[in-house]
């Protein structure tokens, strides 16, 4: 009996030491399988447990064949690793961008990444609106950079989401150090018919800056205002490690249930559940 009690106690210690699972939605796959292996090696060395991770590519304007090839590479890698392919198009590639969206949806891809600064487009451009609208019709979630590198970033993305209510967006970095803007959401939700529940965020990078800073309390207030159910954890590898983001999240004083949702629950609901398509 004493031995059994001791073994039970030891097993409890082992379970307590187990890493908390994370769905990392923000991993840049710059160099194909090499990037995937480097990411997984870093995660293992840091003692992190990843249930899934989002492998990101960003299309270059005019390089349609390269875009298709890189998207296919992500799809292939997702069959060998616990990765979901977050593919890409360039909104200024016209019909080629729409054709690629159709192809990606047929392949079972569930998300794309767009980045106004890196891809050099204006988020307020009608071509961006058209691509995002079509992505939503095809059941694709749109990740869009929201680090406020470009002027008017928050306002443009907010209006883009209002104009495409069927499309679910993950605005990455939660506005970075301009996160205050997003406290408009609780008020916007009270305006009848103004918006759908289609705005979500990852907190990649920004959570690392906010934890233990003079902004921490306001950042946590913002997280709760935009809705814990709308927040996802991302590393922004290779720029930052998953451990940095996960450790920073732990220091914010959130409840265990809030952290569970941000670490993996919200991402699984948003990115692993097939979204309905409204048009063939």
Secondary-structure blueprint of this entry?
Elements: H1 2-17, E1 21-28, H2 33-45, E2 49-56, H3 64-78, E3 83-87, H4 95-106, E4 111-114, H5 116-119, H6 126-137, E5 141-145, H7 153-163, E6 169-172, H8 185-188, E7 199-202, H9 206-210, H10 216-226, E8 231-232, H11 242-250, H12 256-272
Parallel strand pairs: 1-2, 2-3, 3-4, 4-5, 5-6, 6-7, 7-8
Protein name: Amidohydrolase-related domain-containing protein
GO molecular function: carboxy-lyase activity; hydrolase activity
Signal peptide: 1-16
Structural overview:
The model is unreliable at 1-17 (pLDDT under 50). The chain is an alpha/beta fold and 280 residues long. Helix 2 links the parallel strand 1 and strand 2 (49-56). Helices cover 46% and strands 14% of the residues. 41% of the residues are buried. It has an 8-stranded parallel β-sheet with strand order 1-2-3-4-5-6-7-8, with helices on both faces. It has one domain (19-272): TIM Barrel, CATH 3.20.20. It comes from Steroidobacter agaridevorans. Residues 1-16 form the signal peptide.
At the first level of CATH, the class is Alpha Beta
Ranges with pLDDT <50 over ≥5 residues? 1-17
How many structural domains? 1
How large is the radius of gyration? Answer: 19 Å
Strand order of the largest sheet: 1-2-3-4-5-6-7-8
Describe the biggest sheet? 8 strands, parallel
SS content category: alpha/beta
> Can you write the helix and strand succession as a string?
HEHEHEHEHHEHEHEHHEHH
Strand element count: 8
The name CATH uses for the topology is TIM Barrel
- In the CATH hierarchy, the architecture is Alpha-Beta Barrel
The amount of beta strand, in percent, is 5-15%
Report how far apart the termini are. Answer: 64 Å
Number of helices: 12
Shape by Cα distribution: globular
